[in-house]
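User: Earlier you gave me the apo prediction for this protein. Now I'd like the version with flavin-adenine dinucleotide bound, so I can compare the two side by side. Same sequence as before, with the ligand SMILES added.
Assistant: Got it. Here's the input I'm using:
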Amino acid sequence: MHYQAPLADIQFILNDVLHAPAQLLALPSFAEVDADLVQQVLDEAGKFVTNQVAPLQEVGDSVGCTFDAGTVTTPPGFKEAYQAFWQAGWPALACAPQDGGQGLPAVLEAVLFEMLSGANHGWTMAPGLLHGAYECIKHHGSEALKAEYLEKVATGEWLATMCLTEPHAGSDLGLVRTKAQPQADGSYRVSGTKIFISGGEHDLTDNIVHLVLARLPDAPAGPKGLSLFLAPKLLPEGGRSAGPSQARPAPPGGSEGHAVPSVGAIRNAVHCERIEEKMGLHGSPTCVMRFDEATAWMIGEPHRGLGAMFVMMNAARLHVGLQGIGLLEAAWQKADAYSKERRQMRAPKAKMGSAPDLISEHPAMRRILSTQRAWIDGGRVLAYRTRPSNSTC
Ligand SMILES: Cc1cc2nc3c(=O)[nH]c(=O)nc-3n(C[C@H](O)[C@H](O)[C@H](O)COP(=O)(O)OP(=O)(O)OC[C@H]3O[C@@H](n4cnc5c(N)ncnc54)[C@H](O)[C@@H]3O)c2cc1C
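And here is the structure of the complex with flavin-adenine dinucleotide:
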């Protein structure tokens, strides 16, 4: 059986436990977001998740992503579902209207991603990083970078990655060795290898926006020497350089004031070397990425990249919490369905000699299934309460 969107349970937590509609209505940004609108959005989200994303779980696991000479192909149906997802406006649900978003409360996005993760964790890894990338570019990107990338990332037309981990640098990002060399036109050339990069390469979107931690030549050692860069898979029109006539020294704050021309079809020097096996997520391309003097622009200030990157990492952490709740719900749905079909032994109420009872009728099993549901509901209260409103609306 496929995952079914548990809308009644979710609405019980939102409406009867957290009283979310009343709390949201009291906020000026959401004065028009009443209970009917919340229900309408969740109903539509539930339909998309149940009808379009959940049925792809099996093919995602059995076929998985494939790698061929630097190209990554996602499982059959993944690309079509993703295109339908962003074109329906789902990634932009909680983004600001001026960035192409719908300006709806972030708690609705939390519910959406909990359901998506339960329905198909592998597929959901790709859009799961979008909101964090959006917030990071919005809060720390230059006006030129925002003009080129913010709306594309807000709407999900282009997916984004978070390039932190290196073969020798996992928990300890202070060891990151990837280098960024400043160029006369205000851009940078980024060189180094990143591993475990979720969605590093794929066919879901034309362009991929990589946010990369790297070190400037004069950087101090350790985490305070890291700067953050944006390196797209497809370079803006005009290629690597804005041209000698526009050459000028890089200002503090990276690319601020430097034109970032419109996107073209020129491939940046960002290469996927292979896809990795990671925690059974076959539908999610986890990539080893090589940056080979890739053209990039700085996000935020020199040596303060980790702080900017934390905007994205913290959004990703909240999404990992939602993944946990989604997977717990998916496991409960399977266990509950099995307990209602499998007959074993006799329940206490049964008469001697009668047929075996359903597992769901045994008190010990009911206790286990109810405990599992209590964990799910408790997790929802915590997660929805943690992400009630938007930082950008
Ligand atoms: C599902 C998934 C998706 C990911 N996606 C991305 C991605 O998109 N981009 C990206 O850059 N990375 C990604 N990663 C990589 C992730 O960021 C790293 O796995 C993480 O930072 C930990 O690094 P590591 O695996 O090298 O573990 P290590 O740093 O080698 O740690 C191994 C273990 O030792 C423990 N440990 C380490 N140091 C200490 C210490 N000082 N004290 C006590 N215990 C310690 C850790 O807690 C851990 O349990 C992903 C990982 C997973 C699981």
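For your comparison, keep in mind: The pocket of flavin-adenine dinucleotide is lined by residues 162-165, 170-171, 196-198, 278-279 (CB under 6 Å).
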